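Example 3.2
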Amino acid sequence: MTQPLNDAEMARWTAWKRANEAVLATVAREIHSAAGLSAADFAVLSRVIENGDGRMPQQDLGAMLGWKRARLSRQLSRMAERGLLRREDGHGRRVLITATDEGQTALATARPAHARAVRLALFEHTLAPGSDDFWNVIQEISSTPEVAP
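Structure, written as tokens:
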């Protein structure tokens, strides 16, 4: 049986979670303040515009985001109601997602706020000597297939 985390491990785990939450919250707040987009709006628009040249099949978008169909569908409906994107019939039963001019403008407005927030909330804290070791570990973790808990 696996032993519970000891005090030092638990402290590091808690610090990691809090740091992650703080960075994501700062970035989300700055994006919303600059462009009125939620983090989910930003994720969708950035994928559609930057990976799909403004248009991509809904199924491909869902796979790229790693979201379940129901979550993606609800998010896309909300964004369509706000005029950020359109759903269009594609070949067969495929649905194409197209960023509107309003969606493209919102993403262009959000991009600089995103960059500033990431630099302020994350990168400025990881400039110390030896931080390359930290980023090497992060890269290793992010490229490792998920391990069952």
